[in-house]
């Protein structure tokens, strides 16, 4: 893969190290088979590179979801687990939640949070950390 192609992939699938051992990928737009595979490869590579223990997939930017997209998300969460990291999906909109239920997609083993803030809080909890606010 050339430099230009890699740069385009990084812009389409920007993975951020948002805290020590916590990665976050905002997913937006259309996720087809090729992009789902690219996302998985990028995340798995970053888990190794950063020694991350938690990956947050924020799907707030995904307008529509079908069974193929849902299956890509499930595969990504399973692959991250095989790499020793937990995966949290955040940003599930009411319409996406309704679509997943109507499609009969089983997300029983996948942790979901309604917001990125809640997902980050869950990630900290998984790592034995607490957020303390000053009064």
Account of the protein in words:
- The chain has 135 residues and is of the alpha/beta class.
- It has a single domain (3-126), classed as 2-Layer Sandwich (Transcription Regulator spoIIAA).
- The protein is built from five helices and five strands; from the N terminus they run αββαβαβαβα.
- It has helices at residues 3-12, 33-50, 67-82, 94-103, 116-126, and strands at 16-19, 22-28, 54-61, 86-90, 111-113.
- The longest helix has 18 residues, at 33-50.
State the main characteristics:
5-stranded mixed beta sheet, Transcription Regulator spoIIAA, alpha/beta, 135 residues
Sum this structure up briefly.
The protein is an alpha/beta fold. 48% of the residues lie in helices and 20% in strands.
CATH architecture, by name, is 2-Layer Sandwich
CATH superfamily, called what? Answer: STAS domain
Strand content bin: 15-25%
List the strand order in the largest sheet.
1-2-3-4-5
Gyration radius (Cα, Å) is 15 Å
Indicate the topology:
Elements: H1 3-12, E1 16-19, E2 22-28, H2 33-50, E3 54-61, H3 67-82, E4 86-90, H4 94-103, E5 111-113, H5 116-126
Parallel strand pairs: 2-3, 3-4, 4-5
Antiparallel strand pairs: 1-2
Helix pairs in contact: 2-3
């Amino acid at each position: 893969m050339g430099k230009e192609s890699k740069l385009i992939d990084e812009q389409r699938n920007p993975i951020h190290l948002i805290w020590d051992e916590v990665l976050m990928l905002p997913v937006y737009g259309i996720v087809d088979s090729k992009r789902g595979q690219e996302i998985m490869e990028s995340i798995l590579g970053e888990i190794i590179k950063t020694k991350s223990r938690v990956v947050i997939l924020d799907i707030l930017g995904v307008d529509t979801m079908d069974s193929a997209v849902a299956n890509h998300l499930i595969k990504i969460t399973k692959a991250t687990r095989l790499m020793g990291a937990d995966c949290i999906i955040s940003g599930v909109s009411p319409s996406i939640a309704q679509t997943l239920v109507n499609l009969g997609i089983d997300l029983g083993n996948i942790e979901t949070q309604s917001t990125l803030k809640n997902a980050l809080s869950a990630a900290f909890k998984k790592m034995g950390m607490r957020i303390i606010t000053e009064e």
